Fold this protein.
Amino acid sequence: QADNTTQLLHSLQENRYHSRAIHHCHREINTLHHNLSRPPNTHKMVEEEVPLPILFHDVTPIPQEDGPHPVCAISYKEDFTEAMNYLRAVLRANELSARALKLTSICLKLNPANYTVWHFRRRCLQNLSSSSSSTKFAPESIQSDLEFSSKLGGSNPKNYQIWYHRRALLEPTFEAEMIKQKEGKEKGKEDEDDIIQKAKEELNYINGVLENDGKNYHAWSHRQWVLRTICFPPSIYNSELDYVHKLILDDPRNNSAWNHRWFITHKGCTRKPLSSLEDVQKEITYAMQCAEVDPFNESPWRYVIGFLEECKKYSGSEGNDVMEAADVKSLINSCEQEITKMRGNLGSTEYDVDSCVHLTSAKIDILEMKGDDISLEQAANLAKDLETEHDLIRKKYWKLREKEIRSRLSGSKTDY
């Protein structure tokens, strides 16, 4: 393709898009010969410093069409314009080659949020894959592109396209493993260990992202996808509890970490809501201890109420032999006593106990769960106080809550 150096130089001079590359030709022509002479490989391709006009000497770039009189033309950098012009030509030709894959790398480094480029890159990877399955990527492609996306993700940790690309690379392998597990198909222990190891490596990558930003929604979502997709041994969930405990210690108000703790205790929502009374008590005690350290922190209070509401919903339900109504009543009363104790302790400090809105809100929820006239009356009065004095920014919400609670008083029935 590059046998005639003189002819190539002449064509470069005639093409205005190639003018920047003329002075590189003599230095690069031997490199081009070398790379074009070896078998195509998705990751040992033409070196990046080879100018695009040389790499795509047989392609006519397609400039962006802004019309004859653009109202507000964007002043793109020259290298960005050049790369995108070649990309349009490659897309039109539907060229899924190694050099096209290289072009996507250049374009993504210039703009990592370009979804079209990421999608085209996956098509190139799939076409270049040696895998027999049309839905899978070659193992070496997966590993190399995970590293590529990691480099781009370092300065773009909330770039959705990068996170989706990682999932798209791993999804075929992970989901195939999940199907095998469901169908009970035979699989070698070595293959299973390899998939578990790859999943652990992905979790370690996410650890690094969350270390810099513990509330990165994309990272948490990706982490939960990995945990839900792979059937990990129990030890993984135990280590996840330790991991999320560390994050809560670092930032007790990290609601993302509290949400993940809920996810882990429920094994990614793959089992019944309740596992055992002992586990439920353990989680409620954990959250109450965190709330005692900082009663103004909403996260542990919502965690407690979430468990209590779940217990109340599923207690005595068909097929649930873990939680009885008496157990739920005991848990609710225990939490109420703890809240009363905390209110007393808070009242002995310089803080105004009535200004602790989240503590009061939790108590209202618990009193509603009890459901007797005395509890409902007390809950309505607390809601009235929040509406008129202590939580004015949500006064309409508390007014509605008070109305709903008082509507139950006329024909109230004790829930527990």
Summary: Confidence is low (pLDDT under 50) at residues 1-6, 8-27, 29-47. Residues 160-183 form the longest helix (24 residues).
